[in-house]
Amino acid sequence: KVVGTGADRRRQPADTIRFRKLDLVGQAVHTLTSPSIAYFLLVVGLALIVFEFFTISIGLAGGTGAVALVGAFVGFSHLPVTWWALALVFLAMFGYAIDVQAGRPLSWTVIGTVLLVVGSLFLYGGSPSLNVYWWVVIVMIVLTVAFFVSAMPVAVRSRFSTPTIGRESLVGELGEAAVDIAPDGVILLRGA
Question: Residue 80 CB: number of other CB atoms within 10 A?
Answer without folding.
Answer: 11
